[in-house]
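2024-03-11 09:14:02 INFO receiving multi-entity request
2024-03-11 09:14:02 INFO entity count = three
2024-03-11 09:14:03 INFO echoing inputs for audit
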Amino acid sequence: MPKSFKRMLYGGDYNPEQWPEDIWSEDMRLFKKAEINSVTINVFSWVRIQPSENEYCFEELDKIIHMLSEANFDIVLATSTASLPAWMVKRYPDVTRTDFEGRKYKFGGRHNFCPNSLTYQKYSVKIAEKLAERYASNSHITCWHICNEYHGECYCENCEKAFRVWLKDKYKTINDLNRAWNMSFWGHTLQDWDEIVVPNALSEHFEPRYTFFSGMSLDYKRFNSEGLMNNYIGERDAVRRYVPDALITTNLMGTYKPLDYFKWAKEMDIVSWDNYPSYDTPVSEVAMNHDLMRGLKSGKPFMLMEQTPSQQNWQPYNSLKRPGKMRAQSFQAVAHGADTVQFFQLRRSQGACEKFHGAVIEHAGHEHTRVFRETEALGRDLKKLGDTLIDSTIEARVGILFDWDTWWALEYTSGPHEDLTYLPQIQRYYDALYKKHIPVDIVGMDDDFERYDLLIAPVLYMIKGKIDKKLENFVAKGGRFITTFMSGIVDETDNVILGGYPGKLRDLLGIWVEEIDALLPDHANTIVPIDGTFLRDAVYQCNMLCDIIHLEKAEAIALYGEDFYKGMPVLTKNKYKEGTAYYIGSNAEQKLIDELIVHVCKDKGISSLAEVPEFVEVSCRTKNNNKYYFIINHLNESVEVSLPFVGYKDLLTDKITLEKEMLKPFDVKILVDHS
Amino acid sequence: MPKSFKRMLYGGDYNPEQWPEDIWSEDMRLFKKAEINSVTINVFSWVRIQPSENEYCFEELDKIIHMLSEANFDIVLATSTASLPAWMVKRYPDVTRTDFEGRKYKFGGRHNFCPNSLTYQKYSVKIAEKLAERYASNSHITCWHICNEYHGECYCENCEKAFRVWLKDKYKTINDLNRAWNMSFWGHTLQDWDEIVVPNALSEHFEPRYTFFSGMSLDYKRFNSEGLMNNYIGERDAVRRYVPDALITTNLMGTYKPLDYFKWAKEMDIVSWDNYPSYDTPVSEVAMNHDLMRGLKSGKPFMLMEQTPSQQNWQPYNSLKRPGKMRAQSFQAVAHGADTVQFFQLRRSQGACEKFHGAVIEHAGHEHTRVFRETEALGRDLKKLGDTLIDSTIEARVGILFDWDTWWALEYTSGPHEDLTYLPQIQRYYDALYKKHIPVDIVGMDDDFERYDLLIAPVLYMIKGKIDKKLENFVAKGGRFITTFMSGIVDETDNVILGGYPGKLRDLLGIWVEEIDALLPDHANTIVPIDGTFLRDAVYQCNMLCDIIHLEKAEAIALYGEDFYKGMPVLTKNKYKEGTAYYIGSNAEQKLIDELIVHVCKDKGISSLAEVPEFVEVSCRTKNNNKYYFIINHLNESVEVSLPFVGYKDLLTDKITLEKEMLKPFDVKILVDHS
Amino acid sequence: MPKSFKRMLYGGDYNPEQWPEDIWSEDMRLFKKAEINSVTINVFSWVRIQPSENEYCFEELDKIIHMLSEANFDIVLATSTASLPAWMVKRYPDVTRTDFEGRKYKFGGRHNFCPNSLTYQKYSVKIAEKLAERYASNSHITCWHICNEYHGECYCENCEKAFRVWLKDKYKTINDLNRAWNMSFWGHTLQDWDEIVVPNALSEHFEPRYTFFSGMSLDYKRFNSEGLMNNYIGERDAVRRYVPDALITTNLMGTYKPLDYFKWAKEMDIVSWDNYPSYDTPVSEVAMNHDLMRGLKSGKPFMLMEQTPSQQNWQPYNSLKRPGKMRAQSFQAVAHGADTVQFFQLRRSQGACEKFHGAVIEHAGHEHTRVFRETEALGRDLKKLGDTLIDSTIEARVGILFDWDTWWALEYTSGPHEDLTYLPQIQRYYDALYKKHIPVDIVGMDDDFERYDLLIAPVLYMIKGKIDKKLENFVAKGGRFITTFMSGIVDETDNVILGGYPGKLRDLLGIWVEEIDALLPDHANTIVPIDGTFLRDAVYQCNMLCDIIHLEKAEAIALYGEDFYKGMPVLTKNKYKEGTAYYIGSNAEQKLIDELIVHVCKDKGISSLAEVPEFVEVSCRTKNNNKYYFIINHLNESVEVSLPFVGYKDLLTDKITLEKEMLKPFDVKILVDHS
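2024-03-11 09:21:47 INFO inference complete, emitting structure
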C-alpha cells in the first residue's frame, strides 16, 4: 500500500449497524449521487464484532465491507476500540477510569478506558489483530484508523503503579526524582518509589490547573500522553503484523492539550484530524490548527478526517453553516495540506446525544435538502480536481515554534499572572503572518530550524535539552528570531535556570530580565519606540506582564512609557553573529506585533502571496514545480480583489483570472499558471 | 369522610413538639384570635412517635390531637415520614441516598430516604398504619397528609437493581431496550440486564442536564418519579385500610421537574401544594402554577397547603411581604381553585435553618405584630365567605398542554440551543391569555381535549402514544391548535420520528421543516407579516431557533426578514377539516404571540372576563350557576378600573360595584350578581 | 528566656536544605550585607530530620544551627510538623484528612494532617520533644515556632468519633444537645451519641456556608479550632518540658475564619502572623488585621512573621511592590505593634509552586537587584532603631468588638440576606476611625471593656454568656456603645432569644425590632435625620437590611424615608444610666457612619492624632512615657502635610519636623519629642 492516496478521499463516518439493512442500498445510491468515494466504518462497533469475551462475530461487518468494496469505495477501517463493550466493563472493572477527583467510573460515554488497564490492552490489541487478519487482503481498505479521538486522563491505582515504573525508568534513583521535582520544598522528599501518588485533587492539585509540584504534574502529563500513545502503538503493530504496508492513523483534535501530538505523529503513517470550529472561532485559528497538523509530520499532507456538513450538536448554540461556508471550510483544509475531505457523519443518528448533529443524509432521509445539495456540489468539485493536489506541499520561510511541554508547564505556573495562556500567544504571531498572506509552518522542537529564515517562539517558557544551542546556531547563520516575555525561564523539569532570566537564552538575546511585573486586568503600560523606522505610531499599549530589562549586548528598540520602569527597554534587538534576535518584554498590542513581523519579513525578503484584505485567505500548495494558489473569501458577502495571478486558470471553473475579480460570498478559487 | 371540606380551611403547620407545653394553650388562644380553624401536625415527628425500632410512643401526639379536637380544629394529620429517624439511619444505612455524583449520604436534611430502600418502605408504611389505626375514628381529622414534599433522586445500588427490574417489566427483551435507547450508537449495545447502570456523573452524564443517552436518562426520570410515588401509595393504602373514606394528599410543589405530577394526581384524593414565590416571581407565573395544580385533577379544587405569612428564609434576599400582599396572594390561590389557605408555619422555630422563615406567631411571641394582624384580618375574610366557594370550579375554553416527559426530554437534548427550556415557553403563551383575563386550563395528555376551543402546545417536542391522532381529531372537529418550533420531533423514547420534521404533526400542520438554525444569544431575525389582518406591526423580532419551513398544505402568515432563509415562512396556518392549526417556527417576541392569541380567541368567540390593566387579575369560580368574580390588584398602589360587574355585590365588604371602582394597593374583591 | 526581644528581629524563612552547601556561605554574606539578624529555619524539614519511623537525623540541622549561631543570628526554630513525611502517610493513612465533600486525601500539599489522628499527635509531639531536647541550650534560639499556619478542617471518621466525645463533655446529656441544636426541628432528635455525624456535604450541609443545623455546624467549628489548637499545645508543652523559658508561637493569618484566635492567643507566648495583602487590599484593612493581631493578647506587641519582599505567586495577578512600598508596609506593621519584620523568604525556591514568590535573594542569586537594595536599606533603618520600640504599646480609647463565634454563626444563617458577611461590617467602623487617625483596639469578649470610652459592636449577632450584662455595666458607667441591625438575635447555641429582637440587648438599646426587611441588591431606602446636629446631609442611603423599629425607651435620631415603614426610626440613641447606646437599624452608607463616629468621639473627647489626609497613616507607640508617632504615606506620590509634631525628631533621619513637611512616595517618619 503506497503511503498516499490515489484520489482525494471524499466521504466520512458511516454507521450502517444503527440502521436496518433495507436502508443500506439507499445509502449507496445517495453516496454515489454526492460523489462520495470513501467511507469510514466500524468506529464504535466493538461490542457487535466481539459480543462476549471469547466470541467474535464478523458477519455484519463482512456484509458492509463487501457492499462498499463492490461499489468501489475507499474504506477507512476503524478498529472499534474507543468505546468499551458493556460486558467487558461488567466483568473487568479495571477497564474504566478514575477521574481527577478520584471518582471511579462505572460505564458510559466513550474514550472511557484506562490506558494502563491490562484487560483493555489485551483485548484492544486482539480485536485489531482479528480485524487485520480478516481484512488484510481487501485492497479497498485505503487506511486503518486506530481507535478514535484518544482523549483524557486516568488517575486509578493501576495508573499510579504504572507511573512509578515510568518514573523509575526515567530517573533511575529516587534522589534524582526528588531533585527534578524539587521535593525538598515543603518537605516532600520521597524515600521510596511506592510513596509516589498520582497528582490530582486528592494529592498535589487544588484544581486541574493548579499544582503544588509542577514537575510531578508535568511528568504525569507526559506519562498519560505516552500511555495512550502506547495503546495506539499496540493496535498499530497488531495491524502491521498482518498488513505490513497499511497506511495507519488515528484522528487527532488540533490544539488538544493533553496529548503531545509531536510525539504521536512520529508513530503515525499520516496525520488525520477532526475540525470542529465553534460558531465564534476565527478563521485564522482554524488555519493555525491545520498548519499545526501539517507541522506534526514536518509538512506532509494530512487527512481532514471529520467535519460537520452543517450544524454541530455540542456547542451551546449550533448555528447552521451558511450556504457556501462548508465548501469554503473544506477547501481551507485542502489549502493548508489536507488530501481528504471527510464528514462526521454520512447519515444522522435517530437517537442519543448526536441526533442533532448534522449529516449528509438528514433525518428527512432523502437528497432534497440544502445540505445534501452542497455536499453533492463539493463532491463534483473534488472529482474535478482528481489527484492534482495529492502529495503537494507548502513552502514556508517562517516557522512558529510549538511545544506541548512548554504549554503544560506555562499553564501550571502559580504566578505571575493567571490570564497568561499559551495558545493565544501563539495565535497572535500566527495572525500577524496570516493577515499578510505569508505562509507559515508550525514547527516542533525536533524539526530542522535551518529550513526557515524567521523563527518565532512566543512564551518559550521551557528550554528543553539543547534547544538554546539549536537556536543560537540558527541565528548565528543569519536567521531572524523573535521571542517574548516568560521565555527561557525553566528547564524541562520546570526548575528555574538560575543566574538571571531569560536563563539560557540570555546570551542570544543580550539582555537580563531582573523582575517580571504583573498588571491587573484593566491596567496597561505603554511602549514608546526609540526611532520610527518600522514602528509607525508614537506609542503602543501593552499589558499583563512587564519584564524589567537590562541591556547586556542588545540594543533597545522601544521603552516603557509608564510606571517606575519608565524609560527602561521593553523591545530589544540583539545582533548575534550573522543573525538577529528580538525580545518583546510585555504583552504588546497586536499592531506592534504586526509591524514588527512585517519589518523582519521585509528585512529578509519574505513576501506576501497577494495583497488582498485579511478575510480573503491566500495560500499555496506546490507539486512538481506547479504552484496552486487558493483564494478563499471567508465572508458571507461579495468582495472585489486584485490578484497577482492574472491569466492563471481556476481549476474549479476553468476560468482565466482577470485584473479584477469579484469573489462571491464564501467563494473559492484554485489558480494555476497554465501558460 | 366526604371528599371536600365543610369550610375553607385556614391554618397551617404547627410543631408543638418543638415547644414546652405551657406555650400550647397560648397557641390555642392566638389561633382562635386569628380565626384559624385548621392545623397541620406531625410532619416531622417520626423519631418522636417511633423512638426505636420496636417502640411506638403516641402520648404526646394523643395530647396534641386531643387538644386540637377539643378546640374543634380541622386537623391535617401528616404521617411524619419525610425525615428519617437517626436510629434508622445508623442501623440500616441502606435508607439514605446516593447522589448524582455517586456520593453516599450519611444522615441529615430531610426528604432524604432512598425510595427503593426496603427498610424505608417497611417502616414508612408501618408508621402510617399505626397512625391510621390509632386515629381512625377522630372526626376532626379532615385530611391525611402523606410524608412531605416528595423530592429528589437517588442513584444507589438498590435503585440500580430496581431500575433493571423496572426496565425488564417495560421492555421485556434487552433488544427492545437497546432499540429504545439507540444503544448501537457508540457501541453501547447491552446483552444482559445486569449490564445496566444508573445514568449519573459516573456513567452517561457529564452534568445533570447533559446525557449521552437521553432515552436511558428519561427512563430514569420516570422510574424515580414512580419510585417515590410508590412510597406515597404504600402509605396511602395503609391509611385507607383503617380509614376507608380518608381524604388523602401529599403536598406538591408546582412546576417541580423531577416528579410527573399528572401521574401522581391520579393517586391522590385532592391535590395540595406549597406556594413559595421568590421576590422576583411574576404574578402570572404564580397563577400558572395554581392552574397547573388545578389541572392535575382536571379542574378539581385544591389545597394551598403552605405559604409564608411574611418572609422566607431560603431565598438569597428575603423581603418582607408588603402590607396586603399576603392577603392578595391568598385570594389569588382561591381565585384559581384553592379551597384552603394554609401557612408554613404557625409559630416560628427558635433554631435551625428556618428560624428566619416567617410565621403567624413571630419570635416576639404575641399578637401585636403586623404579620399577626394581617393573618387575623384574612381569617375574618375567610370566615365571612364560609363554604360559599367550596367545590366551585373554573370554566376555561382555552387549554395549554403540559407534559413532564416533554419537559424532561427537551431539556436533555444536546443541541440545537442550550438556552431553550420548557417552562418559559409555556409561560409565554399563558401570559398572553393572562394579560387579557381569559381563563385557561393547564391540560395533561390524558385529559379530554374536546372540552376546549383552543389548545396551545408550545414546544411539543415529544409525541407520546397517539397524541398526534388525538390532536388531529380535536382540530378536525373545529378546534384551534397552536404549536411551535421544536415540536413533533421525537417519540416517547426520544428517538427522532424520521422522514422530516415535525414528524407525526406534519400532516396536521401542513409543513415540512428542513433545518433548524440556532442563533447566538445576541442575534435575532425578523418576522414580516404577509398581510396585516391581525399582526399590526410591519415587523417583529424573533431569536434562539429558526425553523426553515417548506409549505406543504399550509399557508404562510408571516415570513423571515433576514438571513439566507429570508422570505421563507415562519408563521403558518393550516386549515384541517373543520379546524385550524398554527405553527410558529421561531421564538417570536411576546407581542406577536399576544396578537396571535387575541386573534384566534376572537375568531372562536372566546372573550376576556374584563377589560382592565394586566396587573389587575380577574378570574371566576362557578358554583350552582353562580359566578364569583375575583378582582385582585397586584400592585402596591391604587388604580381606578371600570368593571363589567356594575351592581354586583362584593362578598368581602357587601358593597355594590359602581361604574368606576378605585382598587387600593393589593386590593381584593369577590363579586357576585346578587340581583 | 525573657518574653520579648533584645533587638527588632529582621530576617525571615530560610531553607538551606533546598540548596547545595556551597551556597550557604554566600547566603551568610548576603544576609549580613542586608543587616538581617534573624533566620527562621526547619519549617518543612520533618522528613529530613526523621527520615523514617524510628530514625532521627540531625546532622544537617546541627550544621545549619551551628553556622547561624556562629554568625550571631537570632534563630526562630520551627518544629517542622506542618507537612507530613511521605513515609508516615504511606504507613499510617489515618494521618491525612477527609474533606468537606467526604473525600479522603492521599498525600500532598501541606497543613494536611488530621488533627485527631493519634499517629500525627504522637509523632508531632515526639519530634518537637527531640528538637527541644537537642537544642535547649542554644541561646541563639530566640523563638520556638510550632508547626506552621495551622489551617483547614477535617471530616474523617476519627474526627467524627472525637467530635462525639467533645460533645458529650460539653453537653453531658443527649437531651441537652438536642435542645442546643434544636433537633426536634425536622425530627432530627438523637437518642445516642453515636448517631452524631460530622456536618458536611454528606449530612447537614448543602454547601460550606449553608447548614440545616447551625448549632451543630457551629460546634464543629469550635471543635475543629480546638482540635488544631490541641496539636499546638501538645508540641508547645513538649518544647516547654526541655526549654522552660522558651518564647513559643505559631504564625497566625489575620482574619482567618476557621480558627478562633482569641482562644489560641491565650496559649501563645507571643502572637505572630503572616501579612499577605492582595494587590487590591486597602491599607486600612491591613491596619485592622494588625490591630486584631495585637488585640488577641490585649495589646501586647506581636511578630510580623512573614511578608514578601516583592511579589507573591498565589494571587491571580502578582504585581511587584512598587519602590518604597515594602518599607512602608513593614513600618505599618511596627506602627501597629510589631516587634519583628520577617520575610518569606530569604532565598527563592528553584522549583515547585512558590518559585515565582519574591525573596530577598532572587533567582539571579546576587545583591544587585532592586529588591535586595530595598531590603538592605530597611535593614539599616531597623538597626538604627535598635531596641527603642521593643515592648512599646498602643493606647486606644475606642474598641471594636470582634468575635469568631458571631462571625461563624452570622454567616451560617439561612436568611435574611445572603450578602451580609461579618468582616466588611467590622471594617466599615474601623475605617471611620482610621480615616480620622484615632487609635483603636480590636477587643475580644473576654477583654476588659472598661479600658475604653467607646465600644463598637457591628452585627453583634450572638450574645454569649453574660456579654449583655458586661455591656450594660460598661454603658452604665458612662461608656458609649454603638451597635447595629442583626445584633442580639441569638444565644451561643444559635437559638433565637425569644420575646423580641434585639433580645438581651433590648433594655440597653431601648428598642424593639419587630421585623427585618431584606432589600434586593440594587434596592435602597433612605435615612432622614430628625435634626442636623451632627448628621449634616438631608438624607443618606441605606440598603441590604432594614429593621422595623419601635422605640421603647430610646429616642430616634433618624427615620426611614421610603417604603411602608417610612417615618419609623432607623437610627436611635438610648441614654442608659451614665452612658449612651446607639443602634443603626440598616446598612447605612459610609458617610453616615463616619459622621456618627466623629460625633460620638467628640462627645467623649476622643481626638485624632493629627489632621492629615486619610491615606497618610498616623499612629503612636508609647514606652516609658515616650510617644513615638508613625507617619506613613501610603500613596505612590508626594504630599505636603502639616503635622502637630513640629520640632519632634525623626528617628530614621534625625531631622527635626517643620511646620510643613513634604512626604515622598511611601515615605515613613517616626517622630518623638526630644525636647
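2024-03-11 09:21:48 INFO post-check: Residues 506 and 512 of chain A are 6 Å apart (CA to CA).
2024-03-11 09:21:48 INFO post-check: Chain A has a mean pLDDT of 97.
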